């Protein structure tokens, strides 16, 4: 496994564009290239050669038969739109060591968007924070990818998760199936995130949920801290970590099992991912689901 897939190494590269490119290059060099499916081409027609045409498209067999230059034109297979949904509510400011959940979500989304763009897919971005929804329509060009990187770089989590709004109207603007990639810590107060997922699922799109967790919240190991603050409500709680750890971890396991079953019942792909976890498996999971949607 490439060290470039280590989140510490990845986040040391401050430029999001460079980090995503470096990470994806490292990932692709370590796997079977045949599993990376770009835009497929099917033969459509011939046309006469015109100055400026790519000589690699010349059909030499046609030249041998007719003594004339013809360009072999192809039709690009229709690719999918990949919409990235990022939870930027205040709970994503939770940190473990050197970086926060939103740091990991930012770089994970950037890498997946770079990979989707590399494969010829249109990409869009939706940011949920402080009861608002920021949206970027899905497009397929490098300038649009650069704009997506810029928006990710500006992310500053605050407030609660977006309250239900006109999700159906926003996400049903196309008749084509889409791949929706949701990066979130699933912190919710009244099932609002599950309500969002139920709405999106009813529209028939393929959904991937990357549930971002930190190692210290999984293990309840906060280096001696005994007072905890809810990042979204400001409420504080006194906890004896040593006494509470066993009960806490049991409840956490039950919660994660319940969440996983909730997703499976709705045929939503669900994966927990910790902020110290290398990205290679998350990238593989994304490729698997993305190629499944193309079939």
TrEMBL record:
InterPro entries: DUF58 (IPR002881), vWFA_dom_sf (IPR036465)
Signal sequence region: none
Pfam families, alphabetized: DUF58
Domain DUF58: start-end pairs: 45-253
Superkingdom as given in the UniProt entry: Bacteria
Protein name: DUF58 domain-containing protein
Protein species of origin: Pedobacter insulae
Higher taxonomy: Bacteria, Pseudomonadati, Bacteroidota, Sphingobacteriia, Sphingobacteriales
């Amino acid at each position: 496994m490439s060290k470039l897939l280590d989140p510490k190494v990845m986040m040391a590269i401050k430029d999001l564009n460079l980090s995503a490119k470096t990470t994806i290059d490292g990932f692709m060099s370590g796997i079977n290239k045949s599993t990376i499916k770009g835009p497929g081409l099917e033969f459509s027609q011939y046309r006469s050669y015109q100055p400026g045409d790519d000589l690699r498209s010349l059909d030499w067999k046609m030249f041998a038969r007719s003594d004339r230059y013809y360009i072999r034109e192809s039709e690009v297979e229709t690719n999918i739109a990949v919409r990235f949904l990022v939870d930027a509510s205040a709970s994503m400011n939770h940190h473990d060591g050197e970086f926060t959940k939103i740091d990991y979500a930012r770089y994970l989304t950037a890498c997946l968007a770079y990979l989707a763009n590399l494969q010829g897919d249109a990409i869009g971005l939706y940011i949920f924070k402080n009861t608002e929804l920021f949206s970027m329509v899905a497009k397929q060009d490098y300038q649009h990818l650069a704009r997506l990187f810029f928006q990710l770089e500006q992310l500053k989590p605050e407030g609660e998760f977006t309250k239900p709004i006109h999700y159906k109207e926003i996400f049903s603007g196309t008749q084509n199936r889409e791949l929706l990639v949701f990066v979130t810590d699933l912190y919710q107060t009244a099932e609002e995130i599950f309500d969002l997922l139920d709405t999106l699922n009813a529209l028939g799109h393929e959904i991937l949920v990357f549930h971002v967790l930190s190692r210290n919240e999984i293990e309840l190991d906060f280096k001696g801290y005994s007072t905890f603050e809810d990042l979204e409500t400001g409420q504080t709680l006194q906890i004896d970590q040593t006494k509470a750890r066993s009960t806490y971890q049991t409840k956490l396991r039950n919660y994660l099992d319940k969440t996983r079953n909730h997703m499976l019942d709705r045929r939503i792909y669900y994966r927990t991912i910790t902020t110290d976890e290398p990205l290679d498996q998350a990238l593989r999971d994304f490729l698997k689901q993305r190629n499944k949607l193309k079939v």
